[in-house]
Amino acid sequence: MKDFVTPRALETDEIPAIVEDYRHAAEQVKSAGFDGVEVHVANNYLPEQYIRDSTIQRTDDYGGAIENRQRFPLDVVRSVVEVWGANRVGIRIPPATTEPGKTPLDSQVGRTFDAFVDALCEIGLLYIHDIEGVTQHTRDVPDGVDFQQLRKRFAGAYIANNRYTLDLAEKTLANGKADLFSFGRPFLANPRPRQAAPDRRPARRSPEAILVWRWRRRVLGLARRERQDQARIGWSDDAPNARTGFGADGQ
């Protein structure tokens, strides 16, 4: 068996090429006919490693101060937006999760992600997809993390994620604390996620197996768009086969 390559820090002059890789990937997704893309800045993916001071140890323009640490992920987001336009791009963020790998949180997690969300808002992304709690484990919220504060700072839609049930999602929606919700494992594990029901809700035998789609037309501005131009996220009840490039990693 061939030995694994030992990871190393990127040289400063190598980083722009990585950004171009993301741009190329966005172009490929678009040419394949998808309707949008989610930039995954969570779960220890490379862009997230740059945001947290617990993982980034650089001393150049990409490390140290918050504005430096968010430089690479924001460059990635901008490269994707140049391909798609901001209204077809969302982002997944992980303020409170230490998984996978029990990765320590940023030492100033609230301040760091406030600044990051402010920058994303300036770019004009369609939504932020927030992992609320420790992915796959708990909905515990550490000190310094305020999901509602992040939502208020962002002008686009807020997608809530992590261990939601249908009942919890409906309660959260009724309280005005989220616009949309995502379910991963229960949805993907159910071979018939859209069981017919008179009130268009999922079958009670699998209540978590459906995205909660109230507000979708208001949030995404679909009402006046032609069907072929509609930007969809995940599974829509009026277009169950719509293809998307939005990430789904099982959460």
Major pleated sheet: 5 strands, parallel
Mean pLDDT: 76
Q: Order of helices and strands, N to C?
A: HEHHHEHEHEHEHH
The SS-based structural class is: alpha/beta
> What is the molecular shape?
globular
Q: How are strands sequenced across the largest beta sheet?
A: 1-2-3-4-5
Share of residues in strands: 5-15%
* Helical amount: 25-40%
Give a count of the beta strands, DSSP E runs of length 2 or more.
5
End-to-end distance, in Å? 33 Å
Low-confidence stretches: 196-251
Radius of gyration: 18 Å
What is the helix tally?
9
Description:
With 251 residues, the chain is an alpha/beta fold. 33% of the residues lie in helices and 9% in strands. The chain contains nine helices and five strands; from the N terminus they run αβαααβαβαβαβαα. It has helices spanning 15-31, 46-51, 66-69, 71-84, 109-123, 147-153, 166-174, 185-189, 216-220; strands at 37-40, 89-93, 127-131, 157-161, 180-182. It has a five-stranded parallel sheet with strand order 1-2-3-4-5. β4 (157-161), α7 (166-174) and β5 (180-182) form a beta-alpha-beta unit. The longest helix has 17 residues, at 15-31. The chain is globular. The relative contact order is 0.13.
